[in-house]
Design a protein that fits this description.
This protein has helices at 2-5, 20-37, 52-59, 64-67, 72-85, 97-105, 112-116, and strands at 9-17, 41-49. By secondary structure, it is an alpha+beta fold. A two-stranded parallel sheet has the order 1-2. Strand 1, helix 2 (20-37) and strand 2 form a beta-alpha-beta unit. It starts with a helix and ends with a helix.
């Protein structure tokens, strides 16, 4: 994303870690490596713990949030979704990452005046 699209700001999610502490440790290792090679900004968004309910949902090819909404991993995904839902939607897509985010959020058919309303 940085080299091909010039995107220099990243939110990092540590996936399938033992706990939030291990997610933070993984983020710090990633930061140490990327600091040596890239000029990018990173922020630790959170961690999704590996749990048996997540593996069960993966085997069933279903969302852990639907199958096991009270599991640790489902609660982590819900918290991440809540955080991302508060991010501002770009008013005008540049055709790069903003376009992807608009499509992901289902705002690809909005005109700029509808987005700000």
């Amino acid at each position: 994303m940085y080299l091909q699209h010039g995107q220099a700001r990243f939110h990092v999610v540590a996936n399938m870690v033992d706990d939030g502490h291990h997610g933070q440790e993984l983020f710090m290792k990633l930061t140490a490596i990327t600091d040596r090679f890239l000029t990018v900004s990173r922020s630790f968004l959170g961690a999704v713990p590996a749990d048996l309910m997540l593996h069960d949902a993966m085997r069933a090819q279903r969302s852990v949030c639907q199958m096991h909404p009270q599991s640790k991993s489902a609660r982590a995904f819900s918290a991440l979704a809540s955080t991302a839902s508060r991010w501002p939607v770009p008013v005008i897509a540049s055709g790069r990452l903003e376009f992807f985010v608009e499509r992901l959020l289902g705002h690809d058919n909005l005109v700029p005046s509808e987005v700000s309303a």
